[in-house]
Amino acid sequence: MSSRDDIFANIRRSLGVKGSETIRQQIVADRLERSPRGVIPKRGQVSGEERIALFKTMVETSLATVTEVASAAEVPQSIALFLRNHNLPATLRMGDDPRLKAMPWADTALEIAHGPSEGRDLNAVSHAFGGIAESGTLAMVSGPENPSTLNFLPDNHIIVVSAKDIAGDYESVWNRIRFAYGKGSMPRTVNFITGPSRSGDIEQTLLLGAHGPRRLHVVVVRD
Amino acid sequence: MTVQSTSPQFKQNATRALNDAQLQRALGNVKQGFIDKRQMAADKLPEFEALRDSARDIKNHTLEHLDLYLEAYEEKVRSSGGHVHFARDAAEAREIILSICREAGAKTVTKGKSMISEEIGINHHLEANGITPVETDLGEYIIQLRNELPSHIIAPAVHLNATQVEEDFRRVHTHLDAKRDLSEPVQLLTEARAVLRERFLAADVGITGANFLVAETGTSIIVTNEGNGDLTQILPKTHIVLASIEKLVPTLEDVSQLLRVLARSATGQELSVYTTFSTGPRRSADADGPENYHVVILDNGRSSMLGTAFEEMLRCIRCGACMNHCPVYHAVGGHAYGWVYPGPMGAVLTPSLIGVDKAGHLPNASTFCGRCESVCPVRIPLPKLMRHWREREFERHLTPATVRSGLKLWGFFAKRPALYRLATRAAMGALALAGRRHGRFAWLPMAKGWTKVRDFPAPQGETFQQRWKRERKGASA
Amino acid sequence: MPVPSKPRVGLFVTCLVDLMRPSVGFAAVKLLEEAGCIVDAPVQTCCGQPAYNSGDRGTTRDLAMQAIEAFQGYDYVVAPSGSCAGMIKAHYPELFEEDPNWRAKADALAAKTHELTSFLVDVLGVTKVDASFAGAVTYHDSCSGLRELGVKAQPRRLLASVEGLTLVEMKDSDVCCGFGGTFAVKYSDISGAIVEAKARNVEASQAPTLLAGDLGCLMNMAGKLSRDGSPVQVRHVAEVLAGMTDEPAIGVARNPAAK
Q1: Confidence (pLDDT) at B465
Q2: Which residues form the 4Fe-4S ferredoxin-type domain (chain B) (predicted)?
């Protein structure tokens, strides 16, 4: 008997089932199909300005910084200002995200690089799939538009998120993912990011910038 | 064989730990921080208790249908281009991982934090076969340098002080300036970041654990604060996920419920910094990510826990809250438990995995204070399960003979109230007489364990039942 | 369920109070009688917890059956201990999962069994006691009472009504004292370390008196404090609530001149 068969046989023996019971199969198929929601905290169940305000508060609670711009056209200037304010070099790496590409980067003195990171970049910008107000989380999906390496390798990570993509809870993001990728399918990676990298492993003292970005800056675009 | 256990020497381990001043100082860090942070996070979320119920129910439902969810998961991983391997035990898991590493021509392997990898002892196996494993979680990296097991499931190096870490870094990072300043924890962190960054970029294979596996989508999930797990899995060409069978959950909605209690129970965060959902290898258009994606699913005795009282233990999501709140863990730390999993969850799980004959002390070394159960996010009745182990030991005559005979003698009298009254009356009278000068005993032959560390208060003399009979019922009864 | 005007209460003395400190039992009797109860103490031995926690289910069941029969005829069963009351309330029923007859009896006993202070406050609605005690006390929450029965506010509420008494909370009052029954003997080094931390918290509160609702924990803490030469006096909360503090504190010699 293969290890696989052996393990399944043992599970079924312990549970006292055969695996062929129609009722059990239906229960499982039904749950996978319907994906019922559980307890959703009321905190995130707000809309409009209130939701954006909650998102920003929670982003700051996670020790990230957040700013707001009125339109996508203002993003490059805002990022240039952020880098200048923190005495960071005027370089920026990004993927092929059409929303980012369409922004007027030429209006700034930023030196832009494209494609995934090889580990030597100081600054990168990514566009979020969405935000989650409940916990101040950014939902990122992998792909050529926003390579996953940009989320982790640079010292300073800037994430742009559209205000309209900020959801109240995780479940709303899963609905959008299903709509975009099909039920039961996922992009290779979804990253939920809640604040800059940190570690408490030395004497339980919280230190930022463990292996991932030391700084996380979020730009909310209102249009 | 899994990792060597010193659980049979628990008592000696504990005594050594109690006399280790360095360790006792480090353990001071556990006692307050984790507890206060968890409480604050729970207080901030009115639905926290309801979420604990929800988390328990999801895990119970999954375990009851585990065979079917595993099949669904396996199918989804395959259709997204990944490979699923099943391992009955630690040895099989080690061989599967070694052969994937060999196929990838691996020289170095980076590792995200994984308790299962500790359970199967993969590092030594890779080393013995010429492959260098590099732990990348800061705590795990530190204990790898020291050749130790983690002493806590989410804070592996919690037993160490910064000065010890400094010594290890100076000993191992010999390519760096010997005169560099490492007096601040942040300097240690920065050094580890730089050293490990090179390791990340050079690694051929990345091994991570999984906090959850999602049947609906074939997704594996890791939760970290450092980002090391992500660098481990997106940079090398091959990503191996090592997970045990009970990590399954049905859907993304279900995992969202569990995520809401996991970080709050563990570190008091709303959510850990990085929650990563991985499904298969890189897609054709992707610019980064692993080209090969393997999942190794380990049983190692867990399937036999299903359908027994210990099935409840398979709900565990490894948050560490039970040990953070345990007075015994606070006193002796994690290494005293002698194997991979310490604290109350270890006291229940370890006997299941390595045998109660070896790990028998663990479920006994508890005051049953119940604080672990009161904070468990999936409401595992840990004291009850420890008691079940004590019952199995008693049935199998593994309970020490002195305890058995003491219990037998006591039981004999306790089951015979009239005789009990006579015997206790005589005994208490004598004990009171002997203790009347000081009101207590500094040494008692039948309670040496007790009087070793504290006095034994003398009884008042007459028993309650004696006096009650005399005062309330007359002498007739 | 309405409370009878003169409820008949069976006192579950607990083996430790019976053998070591009967004055606690009589303090409980006084409190219950003052609250209008008719109190009786049937012949009894032990709730069976030592056997239960040692894995000896057979002996535990025998002792549980013995207790169930002894306490059949009362409206309520009250114990000056959260641990023993918790044993009856939370664990007796599960001992008889496969025996519907005994299960029903165990359920009935569990339903009418209470820890002393929670019985007075939650069931009888007592809000104050007629007692005085000069000075500050600190209170240790024993684990079983706290976590199995929710005993936390009740003793504090009653203590607040004791004339002259001030309650000073110690740090970590809800953390285990390290007693744990046979644990204290089997793992004495660990138990010693846990009670060491407790003793330091007691001393740091600067209250000259330590109270709790379980004699096992009290003997452990008193034994540690006296071993360390601490002058803190240790008593069961019932003694103070009943105004019966003429007996020497736990582990203190009787002064022949006092009586």
Answers
A1: 95
A2: 307-337
Please indicate whether, in this complex, the C-beta atoms of A19 and B136 are within 8 angstroms of each other.
no
Please say whether the dihedral angle defined by the alpha carbons of residues B277, B131, B78 and A10, taken in this order, is positive or negative: negative
Question: Could you give the CA distance from residue C127 to residue B260 in angstroms, rounded to a whole number?
Answer: 40
* Banded pLDDT at A65 (limits 50, 70, 90): very high
Residues B351, B352, B354, B359, Cα dihedral to 10°: 0
How far does chain C reach from its first CA to its final CA, in angstroms? 44
Q: What is the pTM of this model?
A: 0.96
Distance CA C58, CA A130 (A): 60
Decide which of B260, B275, B298 is a domain's last residue: B298
Residues 78-137 of C with CB under 8 A from B: none
Residue B117 scores a pLDDT above 90: yes
Which of A177, A184, A192 is facing B271, going by the closest CB pair? A192
B440: containing domain: 420-471
B434 in Cβ contact with B462 (< 8 Å):
no
B364 within domain boundaries: no
pLDDT at B29: 82
**Nearest CB to A41 within list B47, B197, B218:** B47
| B12 is a domain residue | yes
Number of domain units in chain B:
2
Question: How far is it, in rounded angstroms, from Cα C169 to Cα B287?
Answer: 60
Q: What is the mean pLDDT of residues C100-118?
A: 98
CA proximity to B295, closest of B214, B350, B349: B214
For chain C, which residues make up each domain, given as ranges? 8-123, 132-241
- CATH 3.40.50.11810 corresponds to the domain C132-241: yes
B164 and B28: one domain? Answer: yes
Asked if A touches C (at least 3 Cβ pairs < 8 angstroms), the answer reads no
> Using a CB-CB distance cutoff of 8 angstroms, which residues of chain C are in contact with residue B454?
192, 195, 220, 223-224, 226-227
| C150-194 pLDDT tens trace | 999 999 999 999 999 999 999 999 999 999 999 999 999 999 999
Burial of B307 (0-12, 13-18, 19+ CB in 10 A): middle
Domains of chain A, earliest start first: 1-36 (no CATH), 42-221 (3.40.50.10420)
Q: Give whole-number Cα distances, A87 to A76, A81, A121, B190, in Å.
A: 16, 10, 15, 19
Q: What Rg value do the Cα atoms of chain A yield, rounded? A: 21
Name all chains with 3 or more CB-CB pairs below 8 Å to chain A.
B
Contact between A38 and B58 using a beta-carbon 8 Å cutoff: yes
Nearest chain B residue to A42, by CA: B47
Average pLDDT of span A43-51 = 97
Whole-angstrom distance, CA of residue C109 vs CA of residue C63: 14
Share the mean pLDDT of chain B.
95
Other beta carbons less than 10 A from residue B113's beta carbon: 27
| Tens digit of each residue's pLDDT (9 = 90 or more) over B335-372 | 999 999 999 999 999 999 999 999 999 999 999 999 99
Q: Confirm whether B173 is domain-assigned.
A: yes
Pairing of strands A130-132, A137-141: antiparallel
B287 and B426 inside one domain: no
pLDDT tens track for B136-177: 999 999 999 999 999 999 999 999 999 999 999 999 999 999
- In a domain? residue B451: yes
Sheet with C113-115, side-by-side order of all strands: C38-40, C8-11, C76-79, C113-115
Whether residue C227 lies within 8 A of chain B, CB to CB, comes out as yes
Q: What pLDDT is stored for residue C258 in this prediction?
A: 41
pLDDT of residue B1: 44
The structure tokens listed for B453 are: 């560390």
Q: Could you say which of B277, B298, B319 is where a domain stops?
A: B298
Q: CB B303 to CB A11 under 8 A?
A: yes
Chain C residues within 8 A of B447 when measuring between CB atoms: 185
